[in-house]
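debug: dumping io for the single-chain case to check the tokenizer round-trip. Nothing else runs in this session.
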Amino acid sequence: MASYQFNAVGYISSPYKQKFAIPRQPGLIAEATGYLVLEDDYSDDAIVRGIDSFSHLWLLFVFHETADKGWSPMVRPPRLGGNARKGVFATRATFRPNPVGLSVVKLEGVERKNGKLMLKLSGIDLLDGTPVLDIKPYLPYADALPDAAGGFADAAPFTAMTVSFAEQASHFCLQQTQHPDLKIFIEKVLKQDPRPSYKKQREGEQSYGMTLYNYNIKWTVNGEHNHVTEILQLPE
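debug: decoded output
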């Protein structure tokens, strides 16, 4: 069996610091912004010349957090409630023979900070620190196929989840200035209902926490309602 070795061209700087709460597909939360920070070997401005004429990019990346956990020929897609089994090649599950993923992201610009060449991105569904193996431009005439069949995920996921904020949490979002869209970002993440499928069947109030950017967000779920109870600043 042939094997190949690849080097990462860069790494993702993302508001998602843990796998929990990441939307299950890209583009679902436009406010999810981050950077692809290119490695020094690829920091020549020439390498991205012309890239700003494209609105979107394909990123080929590594599922680095689960890469050492092996793979399975059958998986349980969250989209099917975690109850039905499908072949791994019929899903976008992380536990694959080669732990690589593909994500389409919106390019917001090219920047250079502290000597690092960076691509600013939005609509990302990538964990902080994700290694990126390659970047390719998205071509609408070839990549957008309106008549394609989407199998068991033929339409964007929908939940009826609602979101409210306690006074402290709402005030925190307003007084911080680093992320102007923080409140709507949190709201959209929670409307995706990031809970594991088996917990969505439980009755009564449930408490959760997640890290976005350098904030610890705490909330409760009761039925189809999320209530953000507290937001805390984490040490840099």
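debug: round-trip ok. DSSP finds three helices and twelve strands in the chain.
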